[in-house]
Amino acid sequence: MTNAWTDIKNTDLVVIMGGNAAEAHPCGFKWVTEAKANRGAKLIVVDPRYNRSASVADYYAPIRQGSDIAFLMGLINHCISNDKVQWEYVKAFTNATFVVKEGYGYQDGLFTGYDEEKRDYNRDTWDYEIGPDGYAVVDETLQNPRCVWNLLKQHVAIYTPELVERICGTPKDKFLKVAEMVGECSTPTKTMTSMYALGWTQHSKGSQNIRGMAMLQLILGNIGVRGGGMNALRGHSNIQGLTDLGLMSNLIPGYLNIPTEKEADFTTYMSTRAYKPLRPNQMSYWQNYRKFFVSFMKSMFGPAATAENDWGYQYLPKLDVASYDVLRIFDMMKNGKVNLYFCQGFNPLQAFPNKAKLAEGLAKLKLLVVMDPLQTETARFWEDHGTFNKVNPADIQTEVIQLPTTCFAEDEGSLVNSGRWLQWHWPGGSPPGEAKTDTWIMAQIHLRLKELYKKEGGAFPDPIVNLNWTYKDPGDPTAEELAREMNGSVLADVYDPVDPTKKVLEAGKQLSGFGQMRDDGTTAGGCWIFSGCFTEAGNMMARRDNSDPGDAGMFLKWSFAWPANRRILYNRASCDLEGKPWDPSRKLIEWDGAKWTGYDVPDIAPTAKPGEVGPFIMNPEGTSRLWVRKMMRDGPFPVHYEPFESPVANVIAPKVRGNPVARVFADDWKSFADIGDPAFPYAGTTYRLTEHFHYWTKNNHVNSVLQPEQFVEISEELAKEKGIALGGWVRVWSKRGELYAKAVVTKRIKPMNIDGKLVHIVGVPIHWGFVGAARKGFPANTLTPFVGDANIETPEFKAFMVNIEPSTGPVVA
Amino acid sequence: MNMELSRRTFLKTSGAGLAGTTLGAFGFSEAEAAVAAAVKPFHLVNTTEARNTCTYCSVACGIIIYSKGDLRKGETADIVHIEGDADHPTNRGTLCPKGAALRDIVKSQTRLTQPMLRKAGSDKFEAVSWDAALDKIARAMKDDRDANFIATNSDGVTVNRWLTTGFLAASATTNETAFATYKVVRSTGILAFDNQARV
Amino acid sequence: MTADNLKTPDGNHVPDDVEPGDAVRPGHPVQVSRYTVGARINHWITATSLVLLALSGMALFTPKLFFLTALFGGGQWTRALHPWIGVVLFFSFAGLFLRFWKANLPAREDGTWLARISDVLRGREERLPELGKYNAGQKFVFWGMSALIIVLIASGIVMWDQYFYAFTTIEQKRIAILVHAITAVVIICVWIIHVYAAIWVKGTFGAMTRGKVTGGWAWRHHRKWLRELVGTRKRPASRPGTPAE
Amino acid sequence: MFPPIPNPSVASDAATPRFGEKDVMRRSASEVTPPAQRLTEVAKLIDVTKCIGCKACQAACLEWNNLTEEIGFNHGVYENPMDLTPDTFTLMRFTEWVNPETENLEWLIRKDGCMHCEDPGCLKACPAPGAIVQYSNGIVDFQHDNCIGCGYCIKGCPFNIPRISKVDHTAYKCTLCSDRVAVGQGPACQKACPTQAIVFGTKEEMKGWADFRIKDLKSRGFDKAGLYDPPGVGGTHVMYVLHHADTPSIYAGLPDNPRISPIVDAWKGMTKYVGLAVMGFAAAAGLLHYVVAGPNRVSEEDEENAERLADGTPPPPPPTGQHEGRTP
Prior knowledge:
The structure holds four protein chains of four kinds.
Chain A: E1 13-17, H1 21-24, H2 26-39, E2 42-47, E3 59-62, H3 68-81, H4 87-93, E4 106-107, E5 110-111, E6 114-115, E7 120-121, H5 148-156, H6 161-168, H7 172-183, E8 192-196, H8 198-201, H9 206-219, E9 230-232, H10 239-244, E10 251-252, E11 256-257, H11 266-271, H12 289-301, H13 326-334, E12 340-344, H14 348-351, H15 355-362, E13 367-372, E14 399-404, E15 413-416, E16 421-425, H16 438-456, H17 462-465, H18 479-487, E17 489-490, E18 494-495, E19 503-505, E20 523-524, E21 534-535, E22 538-539, E23 560-561, E24 589-591, E25 596-598, E26 682-687, H19 701-706, E27 711-715, H20 716-722, E28 729-733, E29 738-746, E30 752-754, E31 757-759, E32 761-765, E33 800-807
Parallel strand pairs in A: 1-2, 1-8, 2-3, 8-9, 12-13, 13-14, 26-32, 27-29
Antiparallel strand pairs in A: 4-5, 6-7, 10-11, 15-16, 16-23, 17-20, 18-19, 21-22, 24-25, 26-33, 28-29, 28-33, 30-31
Helix pairs in contact in A: 3-6, 3-7, 3-9, 13-15
Chain B: E1 48-53, E2 62-68, E3 78-84, H1 102-106, E4 116-118, E5 126-127, H2 130-148, E6 150-152, E7 158-168, H3 175-187, E8 190-194
Chain D: E1 24-27, E2 42-47, H1 56-64, E3 91-98, E4 105-112, H2 121-125, E5 132-135, E6 140-142, H3 152-156, E7 163-164, E8 171-172, H4 178-181, H5 188-192, E9 198-202, H6 203-219, E10 226-228, E11 238-242, H7 262-293, H8 300-311
């Protein structure tokens, strides 16, 4: 989220598209109902199903899953054509005026540089025209046909309401009603907020879905303001934190990168990370990259990270591919290239696509280690559960170790919420039986491994034996020790370069923020964006003062938000060029003539004069980006691509199958149904229900009472056509697998007319499996295709093709 | 850290202009209420409170765990109830159907209580000690790493990676656990490192 | 064995109101067997059930009589037992019905009897016609009980939530309760009449205790029946019925 | 936002209930002298228009009251369980309704449960003294020690709420969390409700809050929005804000004009008094008759006549004219 849950109360229009906030985030959705009740805000829901969010919406429009970009580009087209643009904002705070260099172009669904063989682009032409002064060329008049604004206008022109209806199935009048309501938020005193979640991410073009809305929000001037923003409603209690801390193949905490093998040494690595400003006077914050990196390495390897060894640069592994994401790992596993696999509080057999492929992979491991508070299907993938998990245990040679861990109620520490608040919590119960914390387990593994390497030697033991592990009890580091380490501390006294008698930083003290980090090894800090969370003043994440000056919804004294306790990102953009709030009734910060003050921590240097420094300081442009240069693999603008399995060919680019640069593993092409395949005529989608949390709460009696048994949702029309009874059994199958479920026949799903073809939707909630308290069922991933988003490999769970028939239920054997 | 519970409430209502609830006003004085009452006793009395955060989604609702026994005094604590924290700015004491049933997940019948091992080809888990389990894991890691570690690529560039072992991290562990996990996993050269963020 | 098969030695049908076991034994005074052991047991089971039902029913009918639940071991037991006693009553009464229905078929003299109800009440039986085994009042009690018990068991089942909750709507249950209550009031009144009549007409109790009445009792109250018994007494040994003793 | 009620205190002195025995205004099957001073009436307001059907109320109710409902089946709808049970005091009921005026689908979701009527039909129907009490703050509470499990409360209730447990054979329903209200808390469902579709306070506050909500709804085109506080049962201490207050029955059969059934009134009213009178009269009439008419005894003459008849000696003929009914 750019903003915070509590800020949603400040909005005038909530657009829930690509998510179902009432269903998945009920307590956050409260702030929507508050905005409605107190500000007269309106709620629009755009979704294939009339869902729980829609039940309290002011306006609902249906859309076919996987067609969001067409809808969003249609909205942008509508706003541009009808002058629903916050012009001042667009000109000053976006890259609308930037001129794109010759050579870049777009035609028939593809940008320049496409290589069909590699399924990738050569993105060299996707950049700005750089002037002789070394800065990007801009055209304040927006006359240059190659300025971003004109390219955008041209790009979205085809997405007329008629085309939107053809692709999305949204009736034109409904689309126009939504467009009209959205357009009203282009005035500086009206804001719209976007609440989205996996409904946008779980597509082969998920990142571009989100970009589409972000672009719209920029055009309406809704980024950085109260009640605005792009609000990703994250799914798990600390998935934001895990991402921030870079527990991914290609990340270092704080969104730094693991080097690739092209970056053989530290100098090469840093050479592409200069982040020189593209406009005069602009602050480009990533210029501090080196400080964050070196502090991280000091935290990681302590005294072993020295200037001489490039801070331990070679202790880090180097990537040969973009990422070893879960899809790639399971593909490798299936091909016998993985021997050991650890699952920490995660149930991939349920959570990733194509269960059959996942199970095949797990069966090829030598050892699977599962750490979890609960029984999981993954840990028991070798167990025969009849039709629900038909295997022969004797055929599976994988050894499985299942380790009992504590849960939230039994451990201490911080979690990062969707609004980037780091909130500390305390344990309330004793662990059951022999359950242990994950930290203890990781420490034990590390110590044992280190011991083996010390004793026996072996392959490159250096990073293991040199890992900085100076905890009071190395076998069980405390949460406070680790939190202090992430925040960072001073390793050696630092003196003012101008006045060497003046000590700036004192060894042994906690850093007060990332601004104090240094690139000479005198500071350590595990995660620069978290710096400030545990300072000399104490544990800032444990703060519990819920005062809220100005009723702004900021709560600056409650916990700690990264970065620097800032609650709304890009909040400088809430003010005009003079530094006055666009909407004085919703002041966030303002320029008082000398500095920025207000209800939030300014997202700009406190004394950076308005008009001189652009508000988007993490970008070298100083502006936001309507056109993203070469930063996304699948194009600088979003393009409507059909899902890999689709009822119709792409109307705007019939020759393009799916997202043209999404990665598909060789084996998986044959597991996709053809476009318009009559054997799989219905558009399937998966989603969660408010009564359950993923595959956890089926272990919980109360939630199993509230939704005891698996079902699928279909329209009355499809039920009639197929002879399916309300509450009767159905079998649903895709090219990859099948499941049995009860039929919920509902008026809330309607067939759609897609480019002249009637398309029925089959909705598949995800929550069932073969362990737990609820009735046994099938995970939805028996059906879903093994393909991810082109940029970040989020699997395409939301759009695929299935067939359905009435059934007598699963044969229990 | 400070566990002193703030009793502050959000008395400011946005928009409605209603005064704070006068709930406290119903009922007679406490002294008179000592007469035999037919109302069930309030079962949170004499429990220990712990501030926590809901383990499910990223709304991160504040919760209070009520237990018999106080961990801070070194006692065993048995959780009797979990309820929303009215002081929390986001949820204001409310909880969703999962959050309202948090006690049930803590006390689930399918919670794990001891390390278990499933041997190759077996159809069951067998209990093992922590030491045996951890030693086995460390040994398996060492053997696999030593056998498959790639120090340099075909161009002779130092790459120091280990691709035959993967680690899938959690989504509900604390930042502190995550950081400890990061350090341990990264130090081995594992690249097949991912988390729940993608799904 | 029912009276249907009974024939007099001369081959004539035994009158409807002569039941198995009914017999006259000459002596001083004449003894008349009126009820067999089976009939008496059956009657007393019925009677006991009815009294228990009345007590438990009234306990639930009005708070003023709720204390009666103590007789049954408290409210829960009362609630649980009442319907089961009702089942006992129903089957028990069904037995009585099968035994007595024929003797309770209307006869011509019933009209006269009813017309002279004031003489009945004044005990001036010499002004009444000769009557069979039952007078119209007794027949009224018999048929009244029969009808009321059917209504009670039917309405009782509707309100017996423990087993039959799912089969009716709440509105139907409400009606059933009202009907049950009204019917119960009526049956209790009928019961009062029945018991009072037995108290008022001296010598009656013997019929349901020892099974016998005196000849004089029979002469006074059911002379036609007595005459019929005498008429069928020619060769008692060949009678297929079971004697009262 | 309606101001949240502060977190409960766990101190032992905080447990003293603020109402109890002395505040009982009505008690089933008992005469009660109502307390001289009535407590401030409380109410729970359920704003159906803000409800997202998440069932947090159901979960919170199960947890707080330590109820163990069975894990059932899916029956093709979102409801679960399918009806209130002795362990499910509150239940979300879902109705897919097409508004005939706009032809728009509306998903009407209503939290069902005890309405805590001012004139409670359950209490009226209950035959067990003290099994149902009504406190002067409006809470209608079942006292399980006194309950006999007869199920009359079900018939008395105009909303079909109470359910009899198969385990302990007593009636269960929402208590409005009397144990929580007694220490200044709101009911568990209200505390949990994510969107504040459930709020709790004094009845006056709730009516005021409802007005605020109804104004908002009317501004959004719901002309018939209104408060459901049915006068037929004297008003309720659980009220609804409905978008279509003119037709409550579209909300999964919420009664349009609930009142205690006239049949129940007849049963607990007239029948009781008339019945007792009739039975009393019958007994009295017998007694009186006995006193006036004296016992009906068999005479010596009767016995002799019987003996003669038995011996074959013809007894005296019946008096002339007395036996028209007989053939001589």
